[in-house]
Design goal:
Blueprint lengths: L1 H4 L4 E2 L6 E2 L2 H12 L4 E2 L6 E2 L2 H12 L4 E2 L6 E2 L2 H12 L4 E2 L6 E2 L2 H12 L4 E2 L6 E2 L2 H12 L4 E2 L6 E2 L2 H12 L4 E2 L6 E2 L2 H12 L4 E2 L6 E2 L2 H12 L5 E3 L3 E3 L9
Antiparallel strand pairs: 1-2, 3-4, 5-6, 7-8, 9-10, 11-12, 13-14, 15-16, 17-18
Amino acid sequence: MRVHTGEKPFSCNECHRGFSMNGNLTVHRRIHTGERPYSCTVCHKSFIHLYKLNIHMRVHTGEKPFSCNECHRGFSMNGNLTVHRRIHTGERPYSCKVCNKSFTRSSQLKRHMINHNEEKTISCNECNTKFAYYGGLTKHRRNHAREKPHSCKYCQMFFARAYDLNVHMRTHTGEKPYSCNFCQRSFTQLSHLKNHMRIHTGEKPFNCHKCNKTFSLSSALKRHMQTHTGEKPCSFNVAMGPSLNYPISNVK
């Protein structure tokens, strides 16, 4: 009945937090005492809760009882599976209130908010771009130094960002984690899926400011703009090589 009445007769003598059950108070007190009675027999890491030890043991056993029904990838924790599913659904439930950029994880949003909340006092000595933390500056400097510390184990290509390496690895593994809900076609990158989805939805978000014609891809708009500017892009024929759009009789 305490669930309904809100009665919490068991109180912590350290922080005065109340509990409806004495067992919950016992577990809570370990936060203050530092007691961790549940220990891993393999690596001796200890835990406050028994269920956390059980989850930890999967690190050693390799057990992954939670499986994605889209790509069948396994996970040791249900929470990790929930986050992973957003790759397939495109769901980004954590949104920045300042710039409306959205994220799949709350931790990603928290890191992003640094851009808005923290004073940026650390400057790049090459271009004066400012950062709140040295970590951001370190990553940024790789653009100037052409530094690429992340290498592919299959083809030895190098990348400045771990994210770019992860995307590249899919060309070797064949992994295509982003699936279309309409035709089940899958893609290696979320941006490719978003472009593809416009085939089904008919969405054309790219608008020509001269004639108001709309396009589903920014590249299509760019090509269209050349009809207004008179620019003729170089086309390429695999057999003949590049064509510069003039008659062959003019070639001397």
